[in-house]
Fold these 2 entries.
Entry 1:
Amino acid sequence: MRVVVVDDQSSQRDGRVPWLSWVPGVEPVGMDFEQAMALREAWANIDVVVLDGHDRRSARRRHEAASRAGMSEPLPDHDRYIGARIAQSIRTYSPPETTRIVLISAHARDSDLRARRIAQSGVDYVFEHYEVDHDATTFVRAVLEPWALSPRDSPIDWKAQGYAREPDVAAAIRTVEESPAGSMLLSDGTHRTHPEHEWAVRSLRQRLQLLISPRLESTSGPRHPRAPRKSWYSEQLRQALGLDLPRDPEHPS
């Protein structure tokens, strides 16, 4: 069985790979996110992926890792929950019947939108660190027999959370990344400093309203309820992309 352990922290890879190497018939290898993204078609030859979610590395360290992996450009700095992006890339080349994806992350369930993104990315099983990382036996079982340990998460009541329906987080992220106003929305910047993007911002908000639909309460009187402000969409997308999570400081050298 070929297993790949993907994590931005070498200490995690160096701890998990030996645990798996002790199991007869298991051939584990560790990779960072950039090496995993560069694997492409070779994912069809992998049986199990143990995937981290949150990438807290500085932009400089990401650039260095991309160069080592032979990537033409680094992973997007606006995406700090890069594990979901890696999972989506894996599914481009290998279906669940071929490659099982087990995500282990401390931030997989602390945001409903992030959880929705993980589900859409093609991840098969999700664990918190405290559930599987406390000893080698539990970790190995979570990788090789995840169905025996996987918690039964209750379905999210999206209407109770203030949404009109289940959000399409993956499509919303694609829409933001394709828009010339995407970076402005993620930073909640004002179009007054970039007046050329005013109409792009309006178009982006209209498209996002179809993908992440807030439940608009009816009001008395002739006025119709207004769609959320740009800052609301900024907050939603920042959660899905992990921009609300801690990150390592940048160092000049």
Entry 2:
Amino acid sequence: MAWIIRSILTMKTLIFWRRAALLPALLLNSIALSNMNAETPSKTETAVLGGGCFWCVEAVYHRIDGVVSVESGYAGGHVKNPTYKQVITGKTGHAEVVKITYDPDKITYDQVIGLFWEAHDPTTLNRQGADVGPQYRSIILYENDAQKQIAETSKVNAAANFDDPIVTEIVPLRAFYMAEGYHQDYYENNSRQGYCTYVIKPKLKKLGLDVAPDR
């Protein structure tokens, strides 16, 4: 019984941290860091995917060589131009996602998706840790048939690394809506906030990415 109580308290604490995390960003109205490298490549491609809280996924891909920019947003739902308050109700159908712009000469779409399986748990339905709801589902939104094939093949190959079945959705991208400004570069601007300290930072350390992104 004691471990059940501790588990519930931990979950409630993490949810509190995530909600409280919005306050400093809103009050300080901090300007998001520039998400572009000094030299923008002449050719770029994009990948849109979601693996729970977009703050976490954004922080991971910021630190990957070849990634030009990462934007947090919403996709996969039925409401146009949704707000964060609407999405977190779980009623708009949207997932919290990131749009990754990358240099295909430095990193491939297959590699982007390969990291995706390591950066979150794709076996938990509508949940990542204490973040629960369809907005936190594991999802890959492809832009063309080539991306679809690569994502599906990658999913099959990644299955061998998990004891439970992968529940990640692979669906066409209909629209991507950028999230509010205070969500962009969230970890970089609020690294000492509770959710960032106890959820995002350990994830980055586990992946060997606990360094500042190369801007």
